[in-house]
Amino acid sequence: MNILFLQWKVKLPLQKEVITSDELMAHLGDCLLSIKPQEKSEGLQLNFQQNVDDAMTVLPKLATGLDVNVRFTGVSDFEYTPECSVFDLLGIPLYHGWLVDPQSPEAVSAVGKLSYNQLVEKIITCKHSSDTNLVTEGLIAEQFLETTAAQLTYHGLCELTTAAKEGELSVFFRNNHFSTMTKHKGHLYLLVTDQGFLQEEQVVWESLHNVDGDSCFCDSDFHLSHSLGKGPRQGTWSGSPEKQRQVDQDYLIALSLQQQPSQGTLGLSDLELAQQLQQEEYQQHQAAQPVATRALSPQGRGAAFGRPAAERRQRPKQESDCVLL
């Protein structure tokens, strides 16, 4: 329903703040019944009508959840169930990111093209087998489920980023939850629907860039949100557009570094990395400033406030250096 609202296929009165699940189901039923088959052949029309009947049968269950069964071979691979017909009829892509890494051939062989339910049955059967090869295969499959309990792998995340189209609205399935997902400037975002953020007007999207749940919140324009933890100014952002663009640029760079770490930052501690980034930012700031001749007092040249003598390091003086007096 969130996707249908964002696509303007369903509209609500401007003053409406609360909507019941029955009203949502009524809107969804109207959308399903308004769909017309694109093919004119009798066979395809019968198949279309069967899909509509399946979707209308599933409709009452939507308030409590959907039954979908993932396959580990692709981000769009699900075992077909009547519930899937709802997505097909509405033309809404359904994705997941629970994939087997092709660089683990043992896991690929053990999991194969099975769905989740089939894989669980296979594990139970293999563990009670007298064949040591089957027992080993069952243990490998069980280990895969245990190590990917978050139901999102890095290979799955990469495939998901590739499969999703720019600006496309889709549904992302993970841990029995369905989220509204979109792709903006090459990055994936999930619509924030948790009631805890109801009063956070600047929190609209949540980034999806790793499997550990470490994400960032953004506003409706996908700018990094600063509304959390701001005390009295909570929910507002008064920075200039230039400063906001710089923050957004830093955020995108951070995402790129996290997804593809460069050799220059490998092996650095958090403190060393912070110092390196601070030094780079200082150099960029100095390069952007006009070169000016400054009259420096002897006392100013030797000042090194806030650092013990053992930590002071001499470095060549430049005309653009800034000195504290």
Give a quick summary of the entry.
This protein has helices at 2-6, 21-34, 42-58, 84-90, 105-111, 116-127, 132-147, 154-163, 241-259, 270-288, 298-302, and strands at 69-70, 78-79, 94-95, 169-174, 177-184, 187-191, 205-207, 217-218. With 325 residues, it is an alpha+beta fold.
Rg for CA atoms: 27 Å
SSE string, helices as H and strands as E: HHHEEHEHHHHEEEEEHHH
Major sheet characteristics:
6 strands, mixed
The class by helix and strand makeup works out as alpha+beta
The percent range for helix content is 40-55%
Assess the beta-strand content as a share of residues.
5-15%
Domain MINDY deubiquitinase: 1-222
Protein name: Ubiquitin carboxyl-terminal hydrolase
Keywords: Hydrolase, Protease, Thiol protease, Ubl conjugation pathway
EC number: 3.4.19.12
Note down, in words, how this protein is organized.
- The protein has 325 residues and is an alpha+beta fold.
- It contains eleven helices and eight strands.
- It has helices at 2-6, 21-34, 42-58, 84-90, 105-111, 116-127, 132-147, 154-163, 241-259, 270-288, 298-302, and strands at residues 69-70, 78-79, 94-95, 169-174, 177-184, 187-191, 205-207, 217-218.
- The strands form two sheets. It has a six-stranded mixed beta sheet. Strands 1-2 form a two-stranded antiparallel sheet.
- A hairpin with a 2-residue loop joins β5 (177-184) and β6.
- α3 (42-58) packs across α4, α5 crosses α7 and α6 crosses α7.
- The radius of gyration is 27 Å and the shape is flat.
- The termini are far apart.
- The relative contact order is 0.06.
- Pfam families: MINDY_DUB.
- Belongs to the MINDY deubiquitinase family. FAM63 subfamily.
